[in-house]
Amino acid sequence: MKPSLLPLLECPDCHADFSPRIDSREGEEVMEGSLACSCATYPIRGGVPRILPKEKHEQNWETARRFGEEWNDFSMITDEYEKQFLSWIEPVQPEHFRGKTVLDVGCGKGRHVLQAQKFGASTVVGVDLSHAVDAAFRNVGRKPGVHIIQTDVYRLPLKPAFDYAYSIGVLHHTPDPAKSFQCMVDKIKPGGSVSAWVYGREGNWWIIYLLNPVRRITSALPVPVTKALSYVLTVILKTLLIALYRPATKRPWLKRLLPYSDYLCSISGYSFRENFCIVLDHLIPEIAFYIREEEFRKWFDDAKLRDITITQRYGNSWRGFAWK
């Protein structure tokens, strides 16, 4: 943790500033210590403040734990992520980040934090409930202006001081996605902006009715077993992608004939490892909601945001952008 994070922090309960205790440092980073206010003390371990609630929502924590295992095992950040990130936050462009204080809700291994920092954000704070924060700190935590916090979206220990906040593929894995979105918006200052990307209910019938029943089983299995099953399914998927969907990217007539073609063509050039992560993402969590367009739009309306832009991505998910 860099001391420069302190002006952005506040206790999620009493809203007081924290006083740090430093036990060990490595350069600019406080590696071990604690943060204290009048009502609580939270540890700093491995360079990451752990500002977590005492009472845990078991289903939410189990989903976070399983994702944490995935991101620590697959912690590599590749060049593919920049293009993906810009697709998920469209119409936002790299210049939108320049000089801004940015919040990443559900940062995982830090792949989007890295893009925000590369695009010129002055400060990027990545938060995640899971121990994926350890992978995020290893990947990006020591970069200038970057901070990683382990915390709960419903108790964000942050002041409403952010110019821009985003959440990519995370809100639909929380117990109450609409509330999670509002908690993120609450940390944006007036005149700031927000992006979110979620699974759509429209265009995902085969996942909802065929894959979801399987996920209810695989999400209860030990993670190594779920990984083994995901590997087998990825072999099948990769074969179809190479044989059918990759050629279809250059043959519009074939693309029109294939099911789910917009999305599957878009991932047909990914590595086996990246396709494996996509399959695992669908099989590992206990919580996964598929959001209708009108429900997604209501989040933005209820948050009293303006100039709302809602668009569909590859026919099976929703992305939104608006100003506060």
Please explain how this structure is put together.
This protein has 324 residues and is of the alpha/beta class. 39% of the residues lie in helices and 23% in strands. The chain contains eleven helices and eleven strands. It has helices at 58-73, 80-88, 111-118, 132-141, 177-185, 205-218, 223-248, 252-257, 261-266, 272-283, 293-302, and strands at 19-26, 29-36, 41-45, 48-51, 101-105, 123-128, 146-151, 162-168, 188-199, 306-313, 317-323. Strands 1-2-3-4-7-6-5-8-9-11-10 form an eleven-stranded mixed β-sheet, with helices on both faces. Helix 1 (58-73) packs across helix 4 (132-141) and helix 7 packs across helix 10 (272-283). It is globular. The chain starts with 18 loop residues before the first strand and ends with a strand. The mean pLDDT is 93.
Write the H/E string, N to C: EEEEHHEHEHEEHEHHHHHHEE
Distance between the termini: 29 Å
Radius of gyration: 20 Å
Shape: globular
Number of strands: 11
Q: Strand content of the residues, in percent?
A: 15-25%
What's the tally of helices?
A: 11
Biggest sheet, strands in spatial order? 1-2-3-4-7-6-5-8-9-11-10
pLDDT averaged residue by residue: 93
Parts with pLDDT < 50 across at least 5 consecutive residues: none
